[in-house]
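dumping this here so i dont lose it again. seq + smiles for NAP
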Amino acid sequence: MSDERLSTAILGASGYIGQHFARLLADHPWFAPPTLVAGERSGGKTLAEVWQLAEAPPIELAAAPLRTLTAAAIARQGIRVVFSALPSGLAGPVESELTRRGVSVFSNAADHRRDPGVALLVPEVNAARLGGVGRPRPGHGLLVTNPNCSAAGLVVALAPIVRSLRPRSVHVTTYQALSGAGFPGVPSLSITDNVVPFIRDEEEKVERETALLLGRGRGSRVLPWKVPTVAQCARVATRDGHLEAVTIEAERRPSLDEILAAWRGFDPLGPRQLPTAPTPPVVLRGEPDRPQPLRDRWAGEPERARGMAVSVGRVRWSPPFLRFFLLAHNAVRGGAGGSVLNAELAVDEQLLPTRTP
Ligand SMILES: NC(=O)c1ccc[n+]([C@@H]2O[C@H](COP(=O)([O-])OP(=O)(O)OC[C@H]3O[C@@H](n4cnc5c(N)ncnc54)[C@H](OP(=O)(O)O)[C@@H]3O)[C@@H](O)[C@H]2O)c1
């Protein structure tokens, strides 16, 4: 029986996001096991030799080689879908060349997030954006990006409640895990016994991308959400999972029950049955001391969607201020899992070929 799944590759497969891609794509029902692509440092090694995640590498890919391939070579091999975990700056030109060669790209890098013809996408929040961008030109591939890892969790928590609250402003303070900086990350002597109240460009990205994700699509462009989001970002010594303290100043005054019901009832992707979509996408925690990175980073069901749910807790409503904490896995919801879900939505929207030619 022939394998009708779409052929794929991971760019930056030896990095933190790349390894999460490998974990998610090793046995995906719609995408074939990926070709692994890395830079000069890891090229020639196997995935197992560079593996750094706490869980074991997927058996299907552990012995697979990391290859150094150009965009032209990837396209020549008939690969249809590329998941990009390249560093920003490097990613932009490679991703553009791949789409020009007919390969669709789902990227974690920031380079193309603001381009007019590119979808900055979180499927639960702005799925219609894919339709706004539309089908790529004949012979070209689709280019879809996921947002900054803190913005990804924030917009999933905000989307269900913004209509009933009508916010005047959103203030968010983040406590961001070390893995958000990739490998080898922050030097241990800079972060042990410490909190660093600075992550370069992070606050700007959270503010700008939240506005784009909650904005209104107009053709291939987006009218950004007008409500100001004000971010303060700190690096803390956790391994995975960004904790965020959110305060919304609201114009409207729904009851607390209405707000909680909006979160509980939120499941916009339910009918689509996308393999990596968590059900529900927002997990409400009633305990006084949750969410916590150690306990909630892997929230999300079914099994394939572990780490994709956003945990919300410590909800306090004293109008006009709604306060809560959220927790999202930066490398899954805010990284590789977000890209895989974007690609699943594109398949569901019939924007990708349904099978490898
Ligand atoms: N970490 C997160 O939580 C997170 C969340 C959302 C988005 N992102 C974004 O995702 C991307 C990847 O982040 P990361 O944390 O996974 O970074 P990382 O751990 O530093 O991995 C970078 C990857 O890029 C490869 N690479 C580096 N230079 C290269 C070159 N000149 N040619 C080809 N490949 C090269 C590396 O291969 P070698 O091993 O061969 O050097 C490695 O596989 C970045 O754009 C980042 O901003 C990260």
